[in-house]
From TrEMBL:
Keywords: ATP-binding, Nucleotide-binding
Gene Ontology molecular function: ATP binding; ATP hydrolysis activity
Region of interest called Disordered, as start-end residue ranges on this chain: 450-480
UniProt key word ATP-binding: yes
Organismal lineage: Bacteria, Pseudomonadati, Thermodesulfobacteriota, Desulfovibrionia, Desulfovibrionales
Pfam family of the protein (one): AAA
SUPFAM superfamilies: P-loop containing nucleoside triphosphate hydrolases
Official protein name in the record: Uncharacterized AAA domain-containing protein ycf46
Sequence similarity: Belongs to the AAA ATPase family. Highly divergent.
Length: 480
């Protein structure tokens, strides 16, 4: 892609990457002379690393390019000099001259901090993380040194890592196991990503652990068929929003979806990406989304979007949330990666209206308090999980209780007995009655209901569900 821009005569490119040396190698191509500048070495030939000019001053380096036709000057860390007026002026003066002699400046930077004076002069692009082929080649290099056989599956397991990180993961596997193990590489990757604070890997949960929510389960099973090779022509669902009070199983539904698809589950914790430094939060968001894109098939669980994006558009936001929000929405719209976003929210009044715009999500589901048959299913699950003995009829006493509260009851009953444990728990529905009713009211016209309704005869529910599944359009008619 960068080559296309060079061929088209773009004089100033800005490539956002945390892998400058990999970028240098990728950028090199026939037709131009390539030079690299950094403030320690000065100017060197990119391919041979041979120093040719001891120009350490950034202004001089920028002006040096004006004398060289058909050349590309790749700069490292030039972004650190953006506060110097002469650098800005040098770029402004240089752009028309570079263009006239067929030369270009490529600025490699980990952060996008172009000043307004030169912003429009640069074409900005992201360097994608290594793809399958690059990772395999990298592994083959290590394999040669260690005299072990390369392994494509283990090579792919490093997707989402930088070249250096992938190299470290492969080397670790070679040292620990004497071969390239998918498990070791995946584990190393999970550690690296967790340490970077960008993303977390979670274990999917079997759908059998999710009680009730039949309407939601049906929808997910139905729509995710589009990801199977036989149904490749069907439109792929991209995002589902789950709204409801805490503890009703929204997060669990995301985990169960990953298990249903057999895909990895990645948690994107937007609040954790926030940083007080200007522009840093947005950079971290872009970085995290880049990893997700490189990763391929995955369920991306975005928990509590309402809290993450609260304040967008208000006076209290310094622009941090708005910037991250914009980046996230653009990515959701434009990404071509086979990912399914599962976003959850408790309080829709905090969500920016653009987030709920029709077409943004394939469906918005309201997850209510479990109905009686659902409570019975949850009791069954908890009795099995914890060895508690809550009778199924006890579901009658648990109207307005969330799945999380029933789980708490099951655990407490093991120590205190059922009656005492029951008396000690005050369900949220008692303290949040008004909020829950307001949410239900909102959902009535804007969302689908995830739950199996209370007391509805099984037969009529089946008929209703069957009718809904026959809907031809992938979009939600209620939202449109
Ligand atoms: N429908 C359910 N079936 C089985 N377990 C449930 C169900 N709902 C909740 N639970 C139990 O409660 C726990 C908490 O639920 P979960 O985290 O999914 O709720 P949530 O709606 O995402 O809450 P929050 O809005 O606070 O994130 C789950 O890990 C699970 O053990």
């Amino acid at each position: 892609m960068i080559l296309d821009y060079l061929k088209a005569g773009y004089p100033a490119l800005c490539v956002v990457t945390s892998e400058p040396h990999r970028a240098e190698n990728i950028i090199r191509c026939p037709g131009w002379k390539f030079f690299t500048w950094d403030c320690l070495t000065g100017i060197r030939e990119t391919s041979t690393l041979k120093a040719i000019e001891e120009i350490r001053d950034p202004v001089e380096a920028i002006r040096w390019l004006e004398r060289l036709p058909d050349s590309v000057l790749v700069t490292l860390n030039l972004h650190l000099f953006m506060e110097i007026p002469e650098v800005i002026q040098g770029i402004q003066n240089g752009v028309p001259k570079w263009k006239s002699i067929g030369s270009s400046l490529i600025m490699l930077t980990p952060v996008l901090n172009l000043r307004p004076e030169i912003e429009k002069l640069f074409t900005v692009m992201d360097l994608p993380l290594p793809n399958d082929g690059e990772l395999y080649d990298l592994q083959c290099d290590i394999a040669k040194h260690c005299h072990i056989k390369p392994n494509r599956k283990a090579a792919r397991a490093a997707k989402g890592l930088t070249e250096l990180e992938a190299e470290a993961a492969y080397a670790l596997s070679a040292v620990q196991k004497g071969f390239f193990s998918t498990k070791v590489v995946s584990h190393a990757k999970a550690q690296i990503l967790r340490k970077s604070g960008l993303l977390e890997f979670w274990e999917p949960t079997s759908i059998k652990e999710l009680g009730g929510l039949d309407e939601l389960k049906m929808f997910i099973k139905n729509r995710t068929k589009a990801f199977t090779p036989d149904n490749d022509s069907l439109p792929k669902p991209k995002a589902i929003l789950l709204v409801g009070v805490p503890g009703t199983g929204k997060s669990l539904s995301s985990k169960a979806t990953a298990s249903l698809l057999g895909w990895p589950l990645i948690r994107l914790d937007i609040s954790a990406l926030k940083n007080s430094l200007v522009g840093e939060s947005e950079r971290r968001m872009r970085e995290a989304l880049k990893v997700i894109d490189a990763f391929g098939q995955s369920v991306v669980w975005v928990d509590e979007v309402d809290k993450a994006f609260a304040g967008v558009g208000s006076n209290t936001d310094s622009g941090t949330s708005a910037g991250m929000f914009g980046t996230f929405l653009t990515w959701m719209q434009e990404t071509e990666s086979p990912v399914l976003v599962m976003a959850t929210a408790n309080n829709i009044s905090q969500l920016p209206p653009e987030f709920l715009r029709a077409g943004r999500f394939d469906a918005t589901f309201f997850v209510d308090m479990p109905s009686k048959p659902e409570r019975q299913e949850i009791i069954r699950i908890m009795n099995k999980r914890y060895g508690s003995e809550i009778p199924l009829e006890f579901a009658d006493n648990l109207s307005g209780w969330t799945g999380a509260e029933i789980e708490q009851l099951a655990k407490d009953s093991l120590f205190d007995g059922l009656d005492k444990a029951y008396a000690a728990i005050v369900p949220l529905s008692r303290t949040m009655r008004e909020e829950i009713n307001a949410l239900r009211e909102w959902a009535r016209t804007r969302a689908r209901f995830a739950n199996t309704p209370d007391g509805e005869p099984e037969e009529s529910r089946k008929v209703r569900t069957a009718k809904r599944i026959k809907l031809p359009s992938p979009s939600n008619p209620i939202l449109n």
